[in-house]
Amino acid sequence: MRNVILIGGILFGAAAMSVPAQAQNYPWCAYYSGGRGGAENCGFSTYEQCMADVSGIGGFCARNTQYRGPGSRRYERY
C-alpha cells in the first residue's frame, strides 16, 4: 500500500511540474484537394517541405495567415 501511495505522489509531482503544451505555428500550409473539399495542414517550416507533402496527392501550398514569427509583436485592440 505504501508503494502505491509513493508512486502516486511521484506521478502527481511530475505532472504538477511539467510545462503545459503549446500549439506550434508554422509559416506554410498545405491545402489538400478532395472531391468535396479537403483538409489543411499548417505544419511546414518551408515551402519546399509543403510542396514535397502535396506532391503526387494533389493540393497546393500557401502562406499561413495566422503565423507569427519569432520576435513579432501581437497588437491588441483597445
Question: Would you kindly provide a written description of the structure presented here, covering whatever features stand out?
Answer:
This protein is of the alpha+beta class and 78 residues long. It has a domain at 23-68. The chain is built from two helices and three strands; from the N terminus they run αββαβ. The protein has helices spanning 2-17, 47-54, and strands at 28-31, 40-44, 60-63. The chain has a three-stranded antiparallel beta sheet, with helices on one face. The radius of gyration is 21 Å and the shape is elongated. The mean pLDDT is 81.
**Low-pLDDT regions:** none
Total helices: the number is 2
Number of strands: 3
Secondary-structure-derived class: alpha+beta
How are strands sequenced across the largest beta sheet? 2-1-3
Shape designation: elongated
Radius of gyration: 21 Å
The SSE order reads HEEHE
Percent of residues in helical segments? 25-40%
- How far apart are the termini? 56 Å
For the largest beta-sheet, the strand count, sense and barrel status come to: 3 strands, antiparallel
The proportion of strand residues reads 15-25%
| Overall pLDDT metric | 81
